[in-house]
Each structure stands twice: as C-alpha cells, then as structure tokens.
Amino acid sequence: MSRFSIESPKHCAKKEINVNKFYKKFFFIFSSFFTSILFLILIVWLILRPAKPQFSLKEADIYQLKLSGFNLLNSSIQLTLLSKNPNDKVGIYYDELQAYAAYKGQQITVATPFPPFYQGHQDSNLLTASLIGTGLPVASSFGYEVGRDQTAGKLFLNVKVNGRLRWKVGTWVSGRYRLNVNCVAVMAFGPSLPSGPLSSKQGTQCSTTV
C-alpha cells in the first residue's frame, strides 16, 4: 500500500510566510548595500568638492563679416581658447564640445566641434577652431548694428562653447553634465576690415556653468 500525505492549509501558510520573509530579507540587504554605495559616493564627492573648469579667451580674429543680398551673412573667425582644470584630485572628460560665435544675440557662424579629450589634475589645454558661416540668415538690422559699432570703434562678440563633461575620481567616472561657456571679445573696430582682420588678444575670462 503506497503512502501519500496531504498538507493542511496551515502548512501551506507557513511556507508562504517563509518565502515572503526570504524576499523581504533579500530586498532589505540589497537596499542597504545600494544605499551604502550611494552614501559613500556622496561622502567622497563632498570631500573632494570638484570645481568648475575655467575657460579664457586668448585670441579671436575676424577675417570676414560681410552681408550679401537678402540679409545673408558670410563670416570667418579664428579662435583660441584656454581650458584649465583647477582640481587637485578630480579629472575631467570633455565630450561633444562645440563652439560658435554670436553677435547681439544672433548666431553668426555654424557650430564647430572639438575632439573629445581628457584633462588631468591642474592641467591646461589650448583649443583652436575656425568658425565659419556661409549664407547664414540674420536680422535686417544686422548691417545697421555693425555700422554703429564701427562708428563707435568697438565691436562686442560672444564666443560660446556648449557640450558635456564627466568627472573622474580614481577609477570612478560620473555621468554626463551639461557644460556652457560664454566669452566676450572686445575688438577695436576701425577701417581695417576687409583689408585686415579685427583682433582681440585680451585673455578674457569666460563665464562657465555646469
């Protein structure tokens, strides 16, 4: 005669309670571990306190700034920027950096990309780019504004750099943060253009937001 047993509802309830306890214990351990890791990263971050990178405009030369028919602009600008990492223990990866020039809120060149690069502790890098605009539409008042600046003898140009950066601490690398840089170049505007370039070599400090 074969034997078989039938478990009572009490036995089934005990098994269900044990399974629930196991999952709750596993979830608690996993949550505690994950929270500890996040807390450790936060502590390291607060101790190191990474500072924003510093940018300065070393040189900007306008070789062409000419209106054609129907308010279309042709422009050519040579740019040199200095980028510095002020941190002693934090490296910086720069990704997707693009530079362009703007005049009185109007973009006057297309965005020119910089190759990605890594910047070590207290390192500095020179970034050069040729900013070009061919047939870019501008406001009808553009020619008037440039003529007024020429009369005043000064032209104010904005050089902007947008992209993303990542912080590096030891072997840990953060996620990407948006980077925005704005530099103001003040150029002596005389009768030189188009026979010669307008130049700014002031080493202007730029504003940086991360």
From TrEMBL:
Sorted keywords for this record are: Membrane, Transmembrane, Transmembrane helix
Listed transmembrane segments: 26-48
Q: Where in the cell is it found?
A: Membrane
InterPro entries tied to this protein? LEA_2 (IPR004864), NDR1-like (IPR044839)
What name does UniProt use for this protein? Late embryogenesis abundant protein LEA-2 subgroup domain-containing protein
In the UniProt record, does the keyword Hydrolase occur? no
Q: Which residues form the Late embryogenesis abundant protein LEA-2 subgroup domain?
A: 80-183
Q: Which organism does this sequence originate in?
A: Hevea brasiliensis (Para rubber tree)
One matching Pfam family is LEA_2
Topology versus the membrane, per the UniProt entry? Answer: Single-pass membrane protein
Q: What is its main location?
A: membrane
